[in-house]
Amino acid sequence: MAAPIIVLVRPQLGENIGKAARAMLNFGLTEMRIVNPRDGWPNPSAGPAAAGADIVLDQAKVYETTAEAIADCEHVYATTVRKRGVTKPVVGPDEAARLMHGESGRHAILFGREASGLSTEDVTLARRILTVPINPEFGSLNLAQAVILCAYEWSRIAREAGAGELVQPTDEDDALPPAPQDELDGLIGHLEGMLEPKGYFLPESRSEATRRTLRGVLTKPGWNHLEVRTLRGVLSSLQRGDRES
Amino acid sequence: MAAPIIVLVRPQLGENIGKAARAMLNFGLTEMRIVNPRDGWPNPSAGPAAAGADIVLDQAKVYETTAEAIADCEHVYATTVRKRGVTKPVVGPDEAARLMHGESGRHAILFGREASGLSTEDVTLARRILTVPINPEFGSLNLAQAVILCAYEWSRIAREAGAGELVQPTDEDDALPPAPQDELDGLIGHLEGMLEPKGYFLPESRSEATRRTLRGVLTKPGWNHLEVRTLRGVLSSLQRGDRES
Protein backbone atom coordinates (compact mmCIF):
# COMPACT_ATOMS: atom_id res chain seq x y z
CA MET A 1 0.00 0.00 0.00
CA ALA A 2 3.03 2.30 -0.32
CA ALA A 3 2.44 5.42 -2.34
CA PRO A 4 3.59 5.22 -5.94
CA ILE A 5 6.94 6.57 -7.02
CA ILE A 6 6.66 9.42 -9.50
CA VAL A 7 9.28 9.11 -12.23
CA LEU A 8 9.91 12.15 -14.40
CA VAL A 9 11.62 11.05 -17.56
CA ARG A 10 13.92 13.64 -19.18
CA PRO A 11 12.01 16.66 -17.87
CA GLN A 12 12.93 19.96 -19.46
CA LEU A 13 12.13 22.72 -16.99
CA GLY A 14 13.15 22.83 -13.35
CA GLU A 15 9.97 24.78 -12.70
CA ASN A 16 7.89 21.82 -13.81
CA ILE A 17 9.83 19.47 -11.57
CA GLY A 18 9.06 21.78 -8.66
CA LYS A 19 5.38 21.95 -9.60
CA ALA A 20 5.21 18.18 -9.80
CA ALA A 21 6.73 17.93 -6.31
CA ARG A 22 4.13 20.34 -5.00
CA ALA A 23 1.34 18.37 -6.66
CA MET A 24 2.63 15.14 -5.13
CA LEU A 25 2.98 16.32 -1.58
CA ASN A 26 -0.55 17.72 -1.56
CA PHE A 27 -1.71 14.12 -1.64
CA GLY A 28 0.97 12.55 0.49
CA LEU A 29 3.33 11.32 -2.23
CA THR A 30 6.98 11.93 -1.42
CA GLU A 31 9.14 9.72 -3.62
CA MET A 32 10.30 11.31 -6.87
CA ARG A 33 12.84 9.95 -9.31
CA ILE A 34 14.22 11.92 -12.19
CA VAL A 35 15.69 10.41 -15.32
CA ASN A 36 18.34 12.45 -17.09
CA PRO A 37 16.95 15.96 -16.50
CA ARG A 38 17.82 18.29 -19.36
CA ASP A 39 19.28 21.03 -17.16
CA GLY A 40 21.02 18.81 -14.61
CA TRP A 41 20.22 18.40 -10.95
CA PRO A 42 19.74 20.13 -8.58
CA ASN A 43 17.98 22.80 -10.57
CA PRO A 44 17.59 26.26 -8.99
CA SER A 45 14.18 26.77 -10.62
CA ALA A 46 12.67 23.75 -8.96
CA GLY A 47 12.64 24.96 -5.36
CA PRO A 48 10.55 28.12 -5.78
CA ALA A 49 7.98 26.26 -7.91
CA ALA A 50 7.66 23.56 -5.26
CA ALA A 51 6.10 26.10 -2.92
CA GLY A 52 7.40 24.38 0.18
CA ALA A 53 7.48 20.78 -0.97
CA ASP A 54 11.21 20.77 -0.45
CA ILE A 55 11.25 17.36 1.15
CA VAL A 56 10.25 15.82 -2.17
CA LEU A 57 13.00 17.60 -4.07
CA ASP A 58 15.64 16.98 -1.42
CA GLN A 59 15.01 13.26 -1.49
CA ALA A 60 14.64 12.99 -5.27
CA LYS A 61 17.05 10.56 -6.87
CA VAL A 62 18.51 11.00 -10.32
CA TYR A 63 19.13 8.21 -12.83
CA GLU A 64 20.75 7.94 -16.21
CA THR A 65 18.10 5.76 -17.78
CA THR A 66 14.45 4.91 -17.24
CA ALA A 67 15.32 1.25 -16.79
CA GLU A 68 17.61 2.05 -13.87
CA ALA A 69 15.03 4.32 -12.29
CA ILE A 70 12.45 1.58 -12.13
CA ALA A 71 14.74 -1.40 -11.59
CA ASP A 72 13.36 -2.10 -8.11
CA CYS A 73 9.70 -1.55 -9.00
CA GLU A 74 7.25 -4.39 -9.40
CA HIS A 75 4.51 -2.38 -11.12
CA VAL A 76 5.24 0.25 -13.71
CA TYR A 77 2.70 2.52 -15.37
CA ALA A 78 3.46 4.70 -18.38
CA THR A 79 1.34 7.82 -18.72
CA THR A 80 0.37 8.79 -22.24
CA VAL A 81 -2.30 10.92 -23.76
CA ARG A 82 -2.50 9.31 -27.12
CA LYS A 83 -3.26 5.73 -27.91
CA ARG A 84 -0.10 3.89 -28.88
CA GLY A 85 0.48 0.91 -31.05
CA VAL A 86 1.42 -0.99 -27.92
CA THR A 87 -0.68 -3.85 -26.71
CA LYS A 88 -0.77 -3.21 -23.01
CA PRO A 89 -3.70 -2.75 -20.70
CA VAL A 90 -4.86 0.86 -20.60
CA VAL A 91 -6.26 2.19 -17.32
CA GLY A 92 -7.41 5.56 -16.00
CA PRO A 93 -6.03 7.19 -12.86
CA ASP A 94 -8.85 5.73 -10.79
CA GLU A 95 -8.34 2.16 -11.93
CA ALA A 96 -4.57 2.54 -11.61
CA ALA A 97 -5.02 3.67 -8.02
CA ARG A 98 -7.21 0.68 -7.28
CA LEU A 99 -4.65 -1.66 -8.76
CA MET A 100 -1.90 -0.06 -6.70
CA HIS A 101 -3.87 -0.62 -3.56
CA GLY A 102 -4.65 -4.18 -4.49
CA GLU A 103 -1.21 -5.31 -5.57
CA SER A 104 1.72 -5.58 -3.22
CA GLY A 105 5.15 -4.39 -4.30
CA ARG A 106 6.55 -1.12 -5.46
CA HIS A 107 4.61 0.99 -7.94
CA ALA A 108 6.06 3.57 -10.28
CA ILE A 109 4.36 5.95 -12.68
CA LEU A 110 6.38 7.28 -15.59
CA PHE A 111 5.75 10.78 -16.90
CA GLY A 112 7.42 11.93 -20.11
CA ARG A 113 9.04 15.21 -21.00
CA GLU A 114 6.85 18.25 -21.35
CA ALA A 115 7.12 18.67 -25.11
CA SER A 116 6.91 15.14 -26.35
CA GLY A 117 5.85 12.77 -23.59
CA LEU A 118 7.34 9.31 -23.14
CA SER A 119 9.30 7.66 -25.88
CA THR A 120 8.09 4.37 -27.28
CA GLU A 121 11.00 2.69 -25.52
CA ASP A 122 9.91 4.08 -22.17
CA VAL A 123 6.36 2.96 -22.74
CA THR A 124 7.61 -0.49 -23.59
CA LEU A 125 9.16 -0.78 -20.13
CA ALA A 126 5.81 -0.41 -18.44
CA ARG A 127 3.32 -3.12 -17.66
CA ARG A 128 0.34 -0.88 -18.06
CA ILE A 129 -0.54 2.35 -19.76
CA LEU A 130 -2.16 5.07 -17.71
CA THR A 131 -4.27 7.48 -19.72
CA VAL A 132 -6.25 10.33 -18.22
CA PRO A 133 -9.53 10.37 -20.12
CA ILE A 134 -9.80 13.90 -21.41
CA ASN A 135 -11.99 15.85 -23.76
CA PRO A 136 -11.30 14.28 -27.15
CA GLU A 137 -11.56 17.70 -28.73
CA PHE A 138 -9.22 19.42 -26.30
CA GLY A 139 -6.49 17.49 -24.60
CA SER A 140 -3.97 19.79 -22.98
CA LEU A 141 -2.73 18.45 -19.66
CA ASN A 142 0.60 19.72 -18.48
CA LEU A 143 3.06 17.65 -16.50
CA ALA A 144 2.09 18.85 -13.03
CA GLN A 145 -1.60 18.43 -13.84
CA ALA A 146 -1.10 14.85 -14.94
CA VAL A 147 0.87 14.22 -11.75
CA ILE A 148 -1.73 15.81 -9.51
CA LEU A 149 -4.57 13.77 -10.98
CA CYS A 150 -2.68 10.54 -10.36
CA ALA A 151 -1.69 11.62 -6.85
CA TYR A 152 -5.23 12.71 -6.08
CA GLU A 153 -6.67 9.38 -7.19
CA TRP A 154 -4.12 7.46 -5.18
CA SER A 155 -5.06 9.32 -2.02
CA ARG A 156 -8.78 9.15 -2.77
CA ILE A 157 -8.67 5.38 -3.11
CA ALA A 158 -6.44 5.18 -0.04
CA ARG A 159 -9.16 6.91 1.94
CA GLU A 160 -11.81 4.64 0.47
CA ALA A 161 -9.66 1.71 1.48
CA GLY A 162 -9.70 3.02 5.01
CA ALA A 163 -6.10 4.05 5.33
CA GLY A 164 -7.01 7.04 7.43
CA GLU A 165 -3.90 9.10 6.91
CA LEU A 166 -5.40 12.05 5.14
CA VAL A 167 -8.15 14.34 6.23
CA GLN A 168 -11.48 13.06 5.12
CA PRO A 169 -14.26 15.56 5.01
CA THR A 170 -17.66 14.15 5.66
CA ASP A 171 -21.19 15.38 5.64
CA GLU A 172 -21.32 15.10 9.40
CA ASP A 173 -18.27 17.29 9.89
CA ASP A 174 -18.96 19.62 12.76
CA ALA A 175 -22.65 19.27 12.14
CA LEU A 176 -25.02 18.96 15.06
CA PRO A 177 -27.83 16.43 14.83
CA PRO A 178 -31.32 17.69 14.09
CA ALA A 179 -33.08 19.14 17.10
CA PRO A 180 -35.37 16.75 18.93
CA GLN A 181 -38.95 16.69 17.77
CA ASP A 182 -40.28 18.66 20.71
CA GLU A 183 -38.05 21.62 19.91
CA LEU A 184 -39.24 21.56 16.34
CA ASP A 185 -42.84 21.32 17.51
CA GLY A 186 -42.18 24.31 19.76
CA LEU A 187 -41.00 26.31 16.77
CA ILE A 188 -43.94 25.31 14.62
CA GLY A 189 -46.40 25.99 17.43
CA HIS A 190 -44.87 29.40 17.99
CA LEU A 191 -45.22 30.33 14.32
CA GLU A 192 -48.73 28.92 14.08
CA GLY A 193 -49.70 30.95 17.12
CA MET A 194 -48.55 34.07 15.32
CA LEU A 195 -50.24 33.17 12.06
CA GLU A 196 -53.57 32.22 13.60
CA PRO A 197 -54.78 35.76 14.36
CA LYS A 198 -53.74 36.87 10.88
CA GLY A 199 -56.17 34.43 9.31
CA TYR A 200 -53.39 32.49 7.64
CA PHE A 201 -55.13 29.17 8.15
CA LEU A 202 -58.44 30.26 6.67
CA PRO A 203 -60.61 29.06 5.12
CA GLU A 204 -61.25 26.43 7.75
CA SER A 205 -61.69 23.72 5.12
CA ARG A 206 -58.07 24.21 3.97
CA SER A 207 -56.67 24.62 7.44
CA GLU A 208 -55.32 21.10 7.90
CA ALA A 209 -53.65 21.04 4.49
CA THR A 210 -52.10 24.44 5.12
CA ARG A 211 -50.68 23.25 8.43
CA ARG A 212 -49.24 20.18 6.76
CA THR A 213 -47.60 22.25 4.05
CA LEU A 214 -46.07 24.58 6.59
CA ARG A 215 -44.82 21.70 8.70
CA GLY A 216 -43.34 20.07 5.63
CA VAL A 217 -41.40 23.18 4.78
CA LEU A 218 -40.08 23.58 8.32
CA THR A 219 -39.26 19.91 8.82
CA LYS A 220 -37.23 19.62 5.64
CA PRO A 221 -34.00 21.23 6.84
CA GLY A 222 -33.50 19.15 9.96
CA TRP A 223 -32.40 22.22 11.90
CA ASN A 224 -30.26 21.54 14.94
CA HIS A 225 -31.13 23.02 18.31
CA LEU A 226 -29.00 26.13 17.78
CA GLU A 227 -30.75 26.79 14.52
CA VAL A 228 -34.15 26.27 16.09
CA ARG A 229 -33.15 28.70 18.82
CA THR A 230 -32.16 31.27 16.22
CA LEU A 231 -35.53 30.95 14.57
CA ARG A 232 -37.38 31.20 17.86
CA GLY A 233 -35.47 34.43 18.39
CA VAL A 234 -36.58 35.64 14.97
CA LEU A 235 -40.20 34.96 15.79
CA SER A 236 -40.03 36.61 19.18
CA SER A 237 -38.41 39.61 17.57
CA LEU A 238 -41.20 39.86 14.99
CA GLN A 239 -43.76 39.86 17.77
CA ARG A 240 -42.22 42.90 19.38
CA GLY A 241 -43.35 46.37 18.53
CA ASP A 242 -41.13 48.43 16.25
CA ARG A 243 -38.32 50.33 17.87
CA GLU A 244 -38.29 54.10 17.89
CA SER A 245 -36.16 54.97 14.93
CA MET B 1 -26.87 16.72 -15.90
CA ALA B 2 -25.28 19.89 -17.23
CA ALA B 3 -21.65 20.47 -16.34
CA PRO B 4 -21.08 22.79 -13.40
CA ILE B 5 -20.41 26.46 -13.86
CA ILE B 6 -16.98 27.51 -12.62
CA VAL B 7 -17.16 30.85 -10.81
CA LEU B 8 -13.86 32.62 -10.16
CA VAL B 9 -14.41 35.19 -7.44
CA ARG B 10 -12.13 38.24 -7.59
CA PRO B 11 -9.25 36.43 -9.31
CA GLN B 12 -5.97 38.33 -9.35
CA LEU B 13 -3.94 37.11 -12.33
CA GLY B 14 -5.17 36.76 -15.89
CA GLU B 15 -2.74 33.90 -16.26
CA ASN B 16 -4.61 31.93 -13.62
CA ILE B 17 -7.93 32.60 -15.30
CA GLY B 18 -6.45 31.18 -18.49
CA LYS B 19 -5.09 28.14 -16.69
CA ALA B 20 -8.46 27.53 -15.09
CA ALA B 21 -10.08 27.66 -18.53
CA ARG B 22 -7.58 25.14 -19.82
CA ALA B 23 -8.17 22.88 -16.84
CA MET B 24 -11.94 23.07 -17.41
CA LEU B 25 -11.95 22.30 -21.10
CA ASN B 26 -9.76 19.24 -20.62
CA PHE B 27 -12.74 17.67 -18.95
CA GLY B 28 -15.49 19.19 -21.02
CA LEU B 29 -16.47 22.13 -18.82
CA THR B 30 -17.10 25.30 -20.78
CA GLU B 31 -19.06 27.76 -18.65
CA MET B 32 -16.94 30.21 -16.66
CA ARG B 33 -18.13 33.21 -14.72
CA ILE B 34 -15.82 35.80 -13.26
CA VAL B 35 -16.69 38.06 -10.35
CA ASN B 36 -14.94 41.42 -10.27
CA PRO B 37 -11.54 40.41 -11.66
CA ARG B 38 -8.77 42.54 -10.22
CA ASP B 39 -7.28 43.53 -13.56
CA GLY B 40 -10.50 43.90 -15.51
CA TRP B 41 -11.76 41.82 -18.40
CA PRO B 42 -10.75 40.80 -20.99
CA ASN B 43 -7.24 40.26 -19.69
CA PRO B 44 -4.43 39.85 -22.24
CA SER B 45 -2.59 37.36 -20.02
CA ALA B 46 -5.49 34.91 -19.96
CA GLY B 47 -5.41 33.79 -23.59
CA PRO B 48 -1.84 32.47 -23.76
CA ALA B 49 -2.26 30.58 -20.47
CA ALA B 50 -5.44 28.96 -21.75
CA ALA B 51 -3.37 27.05 -24.31
CA GLY B 52 -6.18 26.92 -26.80
CA ALA B 53 -9.18 26.87 -24.50
CA ASP B 54 -10.32 30.13 -26.03
CA ILE B 55 -13.93 29.10 -26.24
CA VAL B 56 -14.14 29.13 -22.46
CA LEU B 57 -12.64 32.61 -22.17
CA ASP B 58 -14.67 34.02 -25.06
CA GLN B 59 -17.90 32.92 -23.46
CA ALA B 60 -16.94 33.88 -19.91
CA LYS B 61 -19.33 36.32 -18.27
CA VAL B 62 -18.29 38.96 -15.79
CA TYR B 63 -20.30 40.03 -12.73
CA GLU B 64 -19.97 42.69 -10.09
CA THR B 65 -20.88 40.49 -7.16
CA THR B 66 -20.88 36.81 -6.29
CA ALA B 67 -24.61 36.95 -5.61
CA GLU B 68 -25.28 38.15 -9.17
CA ALA B 69 -23.02 35.49 -10.64
CA ILE B 70 -25.00 32.68 -9.04
CA ALA B 71 -28.46 34.21 -9.06
CA ASP B 72 -29.79 31.59 -11.50
CA CYS B 73 -28.05 28.61 -9.86
CA GLU B 74 -29.91 26.06 -7.77
CA HIS B 75 -26.85 24.38 -6.26
CA VAL B 76 -23.88 26.38 -5.10
CA TYR B 77 -20.63 24.92 -3.77
CA ALA B 78 -17.92 26.99 -2.09
CA THR B 79 -14.41 25.59 -2.29
CA THR B 80 -12.28 26.12 0.78
CA VAL B 81 -9.19 24.49 2.19
CA ARG B 82 -9.61 25.43 5.79
CA LYS B 83 -12.32 24.49 8.15
CA ARG B 84 -14.70 27.35 8.71
CA GLY B 85 -17.02 28.12 11.52
CA VAL B 86 -19.87 27.56 9.11
CA THR B 87 -22.20 24.67 9.60
CA LYS B 88 -22.78 23.51 6.07
CA PRO B 89 -22.28 20.06 4.66
CA VAL B 90 -18.68 19.48 3.57
CA VAL B 91 -18.05 17.23 0.58
CA GLY B 92 -15.04 16.19 -1.47
CA PRO B 93 -14.81 16.59 -5.26
CA ASP B 94 -16.01 13.03 -5.79
CA GLU B 95 -19.09 13.35 -3.64
CA ALA B 96 -19.81 16.78 -5.11
CA ALA B 97 -19.67 15.28 -8.59
CA ARG B 98 -22.08 12.54 -7.59
CA LEU B 99 -24.47 15.07 -6.12
CA MET B 100 -24.29 17.14 -9.30
CA HIS B 101 -25.21 14.14 -11.36
CA GLY B 102 -28.03 13.19 -9.03
CA GLU B 103 -29.63 16.60 -8.58
CA SER B 104 -31.35 18.52 -11.32
CA GLY B 105 -30.82 22.23 -11.73
CA ARG B 106 -27.85 24.44 -12.33
CA HIS B 107 -24.67 23.82 -10.35
CA ALA B 108 -22.00 26.39 -9.61
CA ILE B 109 -18.66 25.99 -7.88
CA LEU B 110 -17.12 29.09 -6.32
CA PHE B 111 -13.34 29.48 -6.25
CA GLY B 112 -11.77 32.31 -4.29
CA ARG B 113 -8.89 34.59 -5.19
CA GLU B 114 -5.42 33.11 -5.35
CA ALA B 115 -3.99 34.77 -2.25
CA SER B 116 -6.84 34.50 0.19
CA GLY B 117 -9.57 32.20 -1.09
CA LEU B 118 -13.25 32.92 -0.66
CA SER B 119 -14.45 35.49 1.83
CA THR B 120 -16.73 34.38 4.62
CA GLU B 121 -19.55 36.23 2.88
CA ASP B 122 -19.01 34.23 -0.30
CA VAL B 123 -18.97 30.97 1.61
CA THR B 124 -22.19 31.97 3.31
CA LEU B 125 -23.93 32.13 -0.08
CA ALA B 126 -23.27 28.47 -0.78
CA ARG B 127 -25.31 25.47 0.25
CA ARG B 128 -22.35 23.15 0.52
CA ILE B 129 -18.64 23.42 1.09
CA LEU B 130 -16.33 21.59 -1.26
CA THR B 131 -12.98 20.68 0.26
CA VAL B 132 -10.31 18.72 -1.53
CA PRO B 133 -8.91 16.37 1.10
CA ILE B 134 -5.22 17.13 1.08
CA ASN B 135 -2.18 16.23 3.11
CA PRO B 136 -2.82 17.88 6.49
CA GLU B 137 0.87 18.72 6.73
CA PHE B 138 1.14 20.24 3.27
CA GLY B 139 -1.81 21.87 1.67
CA SER B 140 -0.83 23.94 -1.32
CA LEU B 141 -3.32 23.70 -4.16
CA ASN B 142 -3.34 26.55 -6.62
CA LEU B 143 -6.43 27.82 -8.36
CA ALA B 144 -6.08 25.85 -11.59
CA GLN B 145 -5.31 22.67 -9.67
CA ALA B 146 -8.41 23.02 -7.55
CA VAL B 147 -10.42 23.62 -10.72
CA ILE B 148 -8.94 20.65 -12.55
CA LEU B 149 -9.66 18.25 -9.71
CA CYS B 150 -13.30 19.30 -9.64
CA ALA B 151 -13.56 19.14 -13.42
CA TYR B 152 -11.86 15.76 -13.51
CA GLU B 153 -14.24 14.32 -10.94
CA TRP B 154 -17.24 15.66 -12.76
CA SER B 155 -16.18 13.98 -15.98
CA ARG B 156 -15.15 10.78 -14.22
CA ILE B 157 -18.56 10.44 -12.61
CA ALA B 158 -20.18 11.37 -15.92
CA ARG B 159 -18.40 8.47 -17.56
CA GLU B 160 -19.45 6.14 -14.78
CA ALA B 161 -22.98 7.31 -15.35
CA GLY B 162 -22.73 6.88 -19.09
CA ALA B 163 -21.48 3.37 -18.51
CA GLY B 164 -24.91 2.82 -17.04
CA GLU B 165 -24.00 2.47 -13.41
CA LEU B 166 -24.84 5.77 -11.91
CA VAL B 167 -27.81 7.98 -11.31
CA GLN B 168 -28.46 6.43 -7.99
CA PRO B 169 -31.95 7.15 -6.78
CA THR B 170 -31.90 9.57 -3.88
CA ASP B 171 -34.67 10.48 -1.51
CA GLU B 172 -34.91 13.74 -3.39
CA ASP B 173 -35.53 11.84 -6.56
CA ASP B 174 -38.94 13.20 -7.43
CA ALA B 175 -38.42 16.40 -5.54
CA LEU B 176 -38.24 19.80 -7.12
CA PRO B 177 -34.80 21.35 -7.28
CA PRO B 178 -33.92 24.07 -4.82
CA ALA B 179 -35.17 27.49 -5.82
CA PRO B 180 -32.64 29.59 -7.69
CA GLN B 181 -30.45 31.79 -5.59
CA ASP B 182 -32.33 35.00 -6.37
CA GLU B 183 -35.60 33.60 -5.01
CA LEU B 184 -33.83 32.63 -1.83
CA ASP B 185 -32.30 36.09 -1.66
CA GLY B 186 -35.79 37.52 -2.03
CA LEU B 187 -37.01 35.51 0.93
CA ILE B 188 -34.05 36.48 3.09
CA GLY B 189 -34.37 40.12 2.10
CA HIS B 190 -38.07 40.08 2.94
CA LEU B 191 -37.42 38.66 6.40
CA GLU B 192 -34.52 41.00 7.04
CA GLY B 193 -36.70 43.94 6.09
CA MET B 194 -39.21 42.88 8.72
CA LEU B 195 -36.58 42.29 11.38
CA GLU B 196 -34.72 45.53 10.81
CA PRO B 197 -37.24 47.85 12.48
CA LYS B 198 -37.48 45.46 15.43
CA GLY B 199 -33.81 45.98 16.21
CA TYR B 200 -33.05 42.33 15.54
CA PHE B 201 -29.69 43.16 13.98
CA LEU B 202 -28.50 45.32 16.86
CA PRO B 203 -25.96 45.95 18.19
CA GLU B 204 -24.42 47.18 14.96
CA SER B 205 -21.13 45.46 15.76
CA ARG B 206 -22.83 42.04 15.64
CA SER B 207 -25.02 42.88 12.66
CA GLU B 208 -22.96 41.11 9.98
CA ALA B 209 -22.53 37.97 12.05
CA THR B 210 -26.24 37.90 12.82
CA ARG B 211 -27.09 38.20 9.13
CA ARG B 212 -24.72 35.37 8.30
CA THR B 213 -26.23 33.15 10.96
CA LEU B 214 -29.72 33.84 9.69
CA ARG B 215 -28.69 33.21 6.09
CA GLY B 216 -27.01 29.99 7.12
CA VAL B 217 -30.17 28.72 8.76
CA LEU B 218 -32.32 29.63 5.74
CA THR B 219 -29.88 28.31 3.14
CA LYS B 220 -29.59 24.92 4.76
CA PRO B 221 -32.85 23.33 3.59
CA GLY B 222 -32.51 24.03 -0.13
CA TRP B 223 -36.19 24.95 -0.36
CA ASN B 224 -37.74 24.65 -3.79
CA HIS B 225 -39.66 27.50 -5.32
CA LEU B 226 -43.03 26.32 -3.99
CA GLU B 227 -41.61 26.19 -0.51
CA VAL B 228 -40.07 29.62 -0.87
CA ARG B 229 -43.45 30.90 -2.06
CA THR B 230 -45.11 29.38 1.00
CA LEU B 231 -42.65 31.15 3.26
CA ARG B 232 -43.07 34.43 1.45
CA GLY B 233 -46.78 34.01 2.11
CA VAL B 234 -46.08 33.41 5.77
CA LEU B 235 -44.05 36.59 6.01
CA SER B 236 -46.65 38.67 4.17
CA SER B 237 -49.28 37.29 6.47
CA LEU B 238 -47.28 38.23 9.55
CA GLN B 239 -46.96 41.76 8.24
CA ARG B 240 -50.71 42.17 8.08
CA GLY B 241 -52.67 43.50 11.00
CA ASP B 242 -54.62 41.02 13.09
CA ARG B 243 -58.08 40.09 11.88
CA GLU B 244 -61.15 40.93 13.91
CA SER B 245 -61.92 37.76 15.80
TrEMBL record, chains A, B:
Cited Pfam families: SpoU_methylase
Keyword Cytoplasm belongs to the record: yes
Presence of the UniProt keyword Magnesium in the record: no
Cellular compartment(s): Cytoplasm
EC numbers, comma separated: 2.1.1.200
Any GO MF annotation of the entry: methyltransferase activity
Protein name according to UniProt: tRNA (cytidine/uridine-2'-O-)-methyltransferase TrmJ
Its biological purpose: Catalyzes the formation of 2'O-methylated cytidine (Cm32) or 2'O-methylated uridine (Um32) at position 32 in tRNA.
Complex formation: Homodimer.
Xref: Gene3D superfamilies: 1.10.8.590, 3.40.1280.10
Catalytic reaction(s) noted: uridine(32) in tRNA + S-adenosyl-L-methionine = 2'-O-methyluridine(32) in tRNA + S-adenosyl-L-homocysteine + H(+); cytidine(32) in tRNA + S-adenosyl-L-methionine = 2'-O-methylcytidine(32) in tRNA + S-adenosyl-L-homocysteine + H(+)
Alphabetical list of SUPFAM superfamilies matching this protein: alpha/beta knot
Family under the similarity heading: Belongs to the class IV-like SAM-binding methyltransferase superfamily. RNA methyltransferase TrmH family.
Keywords for this protein: Cytoplasm, Methyltransferase, S-adenosyl-L-methionine, Transferase, tRNA processing
Chief site of localization: cytoplasm
GO biological process: methylation
Domain tRNA/rRNA methyltransferase SpoU type: residue ranges: 5-152
Gene that produces this protein: trmJ
